[in-house]
Amino acid sequence: MARGFLAPLGLVLALSVLAPAELLAASKTRPCVTTEVAASVDAKAAKGADRLSIVLVGDTGFNPNEAKVDPAGVVLKGGEVMSFADTIAGVAREVYGDLAFVNLETVVTDRNDIRTDGNKSRGSFHFRSHPLGVKALQDAGFNLFALANNHSMDYGAAGVEETLYHMAVAGAERGIAFAGIGANFDEATRPACIELDGTRIGFGAIGIVTGDIPQHRAGPKKPGQASYRNRLDFATVVDRLASMQADYRILSIHYGLEGRVVPDDRQLTDWRAFAAEQKGIDLIAGHHPHVAQGVELNGKSLIFYGLGNFMHPGTTEMTRFGICRDYGLMTKVHLARAGGGWHVGAIEAIPLTKTDVRPERLPPADATTRIYALNHLAGELDDGKQAFGVRFTPQPDGSGLYCAQGAAELGGKLGKLCQGWQDASAPPQEIAAQIDAACEDKPFYGKPALTKRRGTRPSRRASPPSPFGSFR
What we know:
The structure is a single chain. With 472 residues, the chain is of the alpha/beta class. The protein has one domain: Purple Acid Phosphatase, chain A, domain 2 (4-Layer Sandwich), CATH 3.60.21.10. Helices cover 23% and strands 23% of the residues. The protein has helices at 11-18, 21-26, 84-87, 131-140, 156-173, 185-188, 231-243, 265-278, 364-378, 412-418, 429-438, and strands at residues 37-40, 51-60, 74-75, 81-82, 99-104, 107-108, 128-129, 144-146, 177-179, 181-182, 192-196, 199-207, 224-225, 248-254, 283-287, 295-298, 301-304, 309-311, 328-338, 341-353, 360-361, 387-389, 393-394, 400-403. The strands form five sheets. Strands 2, 5, 8, 9, 18, 19, 20, 21, 23 and 24 form a ten-stranded mixed beta sheet that branches. Strands 1-11-12-14-15-17-16-22 form an eight-stranded mixed beta sheet.
């Protein structure tokens, strides 16, 4: 039975119809006052007007290729069922923040009678996940959902309709924001807006379309998503996000060559030069290559070129790809308001393993090696001008920590986090040699870059100027 939901009426109307009045009344937040898509969020973790924390993870789904959805959970090999809550139980305690982002690389549906999309080539993967999986993510604290990726159309227009319906229902039960697909091009490129304690967060999403299949690209009267490889589509998504009234803007981009740990020239042109430097997008969350790439600070903009996998049972087990490609990345961005804007005070990086079954943190010693690998990749990002590859200082628990100059003097949890922080040192020589070999530009398929960009890779380097001078 069709949901009767694919109509260019806008999701604001759907949310306002579905949302219980008592839930909205109990919330400390309110929908953004805007003509764009709006949502409210439970502010239980909100710290006030001068601090904001954001958790980010990468590609996520709850089912193997073409598997049936089951409300009981994920059906593993051998018929064992793992509940949706159990799939993320190993890292759920890490998802604490005002906002938490995830790329939902799956159709969301409770139906097993919808057909896979016939436009995809033979042998293509088709993912669908039960809406109770989304609820498990919500229960863990996730409230920003990117829907634009090469699996959004795995079940055709019916799958888009199902996803939009269930995401609207999820948003009615608890405030979330989602973006990237729609009943038409206008909806697919429209940014969402979410508000916490008077701070307005704009959120947009775009991704690659499988094989540039024209049937998957949204049109004036056709459901789908905008195509990242279409320059006008990308500019439309970025421009709409940049022009909306918001205090902070987050852009999700699903693009890259699988297995590549070094950003390609298109990422540097589109993400760094256009979205960050020209349009001022504050945070860019990249995913699709299934591996982590370097992290860049560019003025007040923060770019995660690749977050890797977060969780998708039944997909590739990554350990065989070596220490530069065998982990997913969970990050926590700690922002502080200064000079009328939001600036990065600190970033935490947590390497994850077992993303093909049930993600968990790597043991401290193994995680520290991956932090050094991430720092190695940061050397590719220094441009001697405004772009600065973030180096993380390994912590005793295996996480990595970066702190901006002056962050330790801000007080509160952010100041405490950065007390005594020092710049990252170089890894031990034997580990450095392993990392250098493991991080060669060898994607899973296709050709490596013709030219290799190299930074100076100093063990200690000049950090960006402090944005918190007024606090010191």
